[in-house]
Amino acid sequence: MKNKILILVFTLICFLQSNAQCAMCRAVLENEEGQGTAEAINDGIVYLMAIPYVLFAGFAYFLYRKYSKK
Predict the structure, then answer these.
(1) For residues 29 and 21, what is the distance between their CA atoms, to the nearest angstrom?
(2) Cβ–Cβ < 8 Å for 32, 38
(3) Which range of residues forms the domain containing residue 48?
(4) Per-residue confidence of the chain (70 residues) as pLDDT tens digits?
(5) Torsion, Cα of 7, 12, 17, 19 (10° steps)
(6) What domain count does the chain have?
(7) Closest of 39, 13, 49 to residue 5, by C-alpha
């Protein structure tokens, strides 16, 4: 029970720190004139979002190939 409470507190602390960073990003991106940084941030988000899907698809393909050779 003590471990569960400790993990919950740690998770909440990490969430509060990451939530604070979003406000900083927004402030920087709203004040920029050329919007070049905003486009770069958006590209980075798409890149980070795509990686788990590519890894999962590769793993699923590996499992399919392994179990379909019967």
Answers:
(1) 12
(2) yes
(3) 2-67
(4) 888 888 888 777 766 555 555 666 777 777 767 677 778 888 888 888 899 999 999 999 999 998 987 5
(5) 140
(6) 1
(7) 13
